[in-house]
Amino acid sequence: MGTYDPGKYHVDLDRIPNINESPGPKSRELHARASKYFRGLSGQVRLFPVAFESGEGCVLRDVDGNQYIDFSSGIYVTTLGHCHPKVSEAVAQYAKTLMNCHDFTTEIKVRLIEKIVEIMPADLEGIQLYDSGTTAVEAALRTCRAATGKTEFISCYRDFHGKSGHAVSLANMTKFSGTGRSQGFYMVPRPDTYRPLWRRADGSLDTEAYLDFYDTFIKESTTGQIAAFVLEPIQGWGGSVMPPDDFFPKLRTFCDARGILLVADEVLTGIGRTGDWLCTNHWNTVPDVATLGKGFGNGFPVTAMVVRAPYADAVDKISASTSYGGNPMACAAALASIEVIEEEGLLAHAQHLEELFIERMADWPRRYPIVGHTRAKGCLLGVELVKDQGTKEPFDEAGKLVYQKAFARGLAWIPAGHILRMSPPIIMPDDVAMKGMDIIEESIAEVAAEFGYSASRAPLAATA
Ligand SMILES: Cc1ncc(COP(=O)(O)O)c(C=O)c1O
Fold first, then answer.
1. Is residue 456 one of the residues assigned to a domain?
2. Are residues 268 and 352 in the same domain?
3. Which of 25, 82, 337, 434 is most deeply packed, by most CB within 10 A?
4. Which atom of ligand 1 is nearest to the CA of 232?
């Protein structure tokens, strides 16, 4: 593992962020032309219709010349910042040499799969490559069915796994499922340390009570034919919701005792985002199947399903290959991304940033009555905005406004109802990270005041 060099990703904070008018005239003109035909835009774009032109490291530039600090890595994708030279060159090399040869073996694929095995926990060694997180999740479900002979799945409310038929059936978001969810897909609540459903006498979250509930639920509400428990290690789309540290180890034991496979959907959390190759590593838990995506190719569409040895042969039964999965450009992008993380010491840097973020946000609930909770794991952050810290009533209107105000100040990031979600690239230098936090804090302070909350009881922290 190398050592992080902040000089490599230096941002001149006297010049950046630099917002003249955003969205500016060129953005508005392009957006109007696109909107004439392009349908199904995300809420993110509808709230802030800016047109981007280029990106380098932690900085994004729009068509009007405005420059933003990137606090979302696209949508949790460009973990190594925009256009990392090593990744771009690796893709370019194969774009000129060999773009696709279905799933025939190539040397670059062999090097990638050997590298994946090297960074995964022991035993996670059956690999197949895909081109979207959704396809990897679908393959994981089919693998679990083939491995167990059972057909049903348990997943968690507000987790997100993609937008195809079965992936949406793992979620409870009707806007994604359109016509409804498939049969045999059951959902249970997952532990959320800020909003526990079951508590111990001392008020802390009671993990055992969740597992007891799952046990009863399986006995009374399912056919008992559960192939796998599928969940995100940390809920991403749902708002960086973290489980207590004992949840995954206990869930592992729970699944083993019942012959249920454990699938960790690490599309969002894997490959460095939380400061480790897999987020489940933080809890010394090895899933039976893990899915990788997003930061895996740092922007190039490449994803993977990794299966524990005892079940790896099941992958041979699902006709696993696809048109684009494992194409040479994709393999080159993924291998280069992993090597950059190793060579530049980025897992350790993501852990270091986590400490800075946690410290920086620690007193926000005291300063701002609309902040209910703050949290971070690596470079995955969440801030819950509430109308009342006692009742914890979600404050969606405030979340939307904070998003827009921070964006207008030069922070490119993701909206999410009352939970502010942040996922800066793990290459980000400390001062840039703290500048991003300044912008968010200023925006929260302004929104709190606009809604009539007496803002801080102490002056705002100065930029580090
Ligand atoms: C945890 C998780 N799984 C799966 C997916 C689907 O990935 P994709 O959009 O690449 O199909 C996502 C996308 O946000 C995700 O966050």
1. no
2. no
3. 337
4. 1
Q: Which residues line ligand 1 (CB under 6 A)?
A: 132-134, 137, 160-162, 232, 236-237, 265, 267-268, 293
- Are residue 56 and residue 117 in the same domain, yes or no? no
Q: How many domains does the chain have?
A: 2
Q: Let me know if residue 81 belongs to a domain.
A: no
Q: Going residue by residue through the chain (464 aa), what tens digit of pLDDT does each one get? A: 899 999 999 999 999 999 999 999 999 999 999 999 999 998 889 888 999 999 999 999 999 999 999 999 999 999 999 999 999 999 999 999 999 999 999 999 999 999 999 999 999 999 999 999 999 999 999 999 999 999 999 999 999 999 998 999 999 866 665 667 888 999 999 999 999 999 999 999 999 999 999 999 999 999 999 999 999 999 999 999 999 999 999 999 999 999 999 999 999 999 999 999 999 999 999 999 999 999 999 999 999 999 999 999 999 999 999 999 999 999 999 999 999 999 999 999 999 999 999 999 999 999 999 999 999 999 999 999 999 999 999 999 999 999 999 999 999 998 879 999 999 999 999 999 999 999 999 999 999 999 999 865 443 443 33
Geometric angle at alpha carbon 92, from 89 and 93, rounded to 5°: 85
* CA–CA distance, 239 with 157 (Å, rounded to integer): 12
| 343, 371, 404 - which closes a domain | 343
Whole-structure pTM value: 0.96
d(CA 437, CA 422) in angstroms, rounded, equals 10
Q: Are residues 238 and 350 in the same domain?
A: no
The alpha carbon of 191 and the centre of ligand 1 are apart by a number of angstroms equal to 21
Residue closest via CA to ligand 1's atom 4 equals 161
Q: How far apart are CA 376 and CA 355, in angstroms?
A: 8
Q: Which domain holds residue 423?
A: 6-76+346-450
Decide which of 322, 343, 364 is a domain's last residue.
343
Ligand 1 nearest atom to the CA of residue 294, by list position: 10
18 torsion bin: left (phi>0), alpha (psi -120 to 50), beta (else): beta
Q: How far is the CA of 133 from the centre of ligand 1 (A)?
A: 5
Instruction: Let me know if residue 183 belongs to a domain.
Output: yes
Residues 155 and 68 in one domain: no
Please say whether the beta carbons of 258 and 218 come within 8 A.
yes
CB 445 within 8 A of CB 455: yes
Find the 135 Cα to ligand 1 centroid distance in Å.
9
Let me know: does 343 contact 2? Beta carbons within 8 Å. yes
